[in-house]
Specification:
This protein is mostly helical and 297 residues long. It has helices at 2-21, 25-45, 48-71, 78-94, 97-122, 128-156, 161-186, 201-221, 227-255, 270-274, 277-291; strands at 190-192, 196-200.
Length: 297
């Protein structure tokens, strides 16, 4: 009877959370733990499994973003986008970093040229403003998804890079979790009501505390850095994670959708999980070059 009563209370609480956030808490936890286990295993045992996982996730994100844009009426070409994404992933894994910038320009040029050729052959009377929107959206996808994801692969190639990748992922996840829990329990003051009405300043405060604590612990226990560098690490990743979260919310609001897809029950789509992680890869790579010289002997 006690077990049944506890289960009923948990289901009731889960129903209230789902009503407030639109997420199934149990499914979200199960899928989140499974994804975390795959990523952790791919980083601990060798670098190449994470490169495969990261590249595959980046291409899935490209596919998902293209489908979301197409569903909103934008003309975006899927195959060129996947080719451009694969080019950036392979460039990050095998080429020198300066050549990676060349690959980025080549990827953006490829998708824009393909879109213009597609528009010229369509002859559907599409107005100039719509064509310009299509071109800008096409050029934005390689920069937003595969390029930002590829920076994590460049970080992975550095000495002890796997631990830095793991660290920025943990801090970004800690920020998301802190914001979710604090916002759910204490959230009253909206942070950006026109972009994401459910995000609150209380949630941001919880994210800041969680990020700083995670940063200090990781600097001390994993990265062999002075403890105070963990504060810098946590705050920088907090900023990029928050900006990425709000940025994706703005894109979804513009497209008129709640989630990029329904591939991950309880989470939404792949990009709904990568929104805070993609820009945090930039922070992780920059912090590596800034803080790595301070590694304790």
């Amino acid at each position: 009877m006690q077990v049944a009563h506890a289960r009923a209370e948990f289901e009731e609480a889960n129903a209230r959370i789902k009503q407030r956030t639109g997420r199934d808490l149990i499914l979200a936890i199960v899928i989140g733990v499974a994804i975390g286990a795959i990523v952790l295993a791919s980083l601990i045992f060798a670098k190449w499994p994470f490169a495969i996982v990261g590249g595959a996730v980046a291409l899935l994100g490209v596919f998902e973003f293209v489908r979301a844009l197409q569903g909103a009426g934008r003309r975006v070409d899927l195959i060129p986008q996947l080719i451009a994404g694969l080019l950036l992933v392979l460039s990050a894994v095998f080429l020198d970093p300066w050549l990676h910038w060349v690959s980025l320009f080549a990827a953006v040029a490829l998708v824009i040229v393909c879109r213009l050729i597609g528009q010229m052959t369509a002859r559907d009377g599409r107005v100039y403003a719509s064509v310009l929107d299509d071109v800008l959206a096409s050029g934005f996808i390689p920069v937003y998804v595969p390029f930002l994801a590829s920076l994590a692969l460049i970080l992975l190639r550095q000495e002890n890079g796997e631990w830095w990748v793991l660290s920025f992922l943990i801090v970004a996840i800690a920020a998301d979790t802190g914001a979710y829990v604090t916002g759910l329990t204490l959230g009253k003051h909206p942070m950006a009501p026109r972009i994401s009405p459910k995000k609150t300043w209380e949630g941001f405060a919880g994210a800041a505390v969680a990020s700083v604590i995670a940063g200090i612990l990781l600097a001390w226990l994993l990265l062999d850095l002075p403890w105070w560098t963990g504060i810098i690490f946590g705050l920088v990743v907090l900023g990029t994670a928050t900006a990425g979260d709000l940025g994706e919310s703005m894109v979804k609001r513009d497209l008129g959708i709640k989630d990029m897809s329904s591939w991950l029950p309880g989470h939404g789509g792949v990009l709904d999980r990568l929104d805070s992680i993609l820009p945090s890869a930039v922070a992780g790579l920059a912090l590596y070059f800034l803080l790595a010289p301070l590694v304790l002997s």
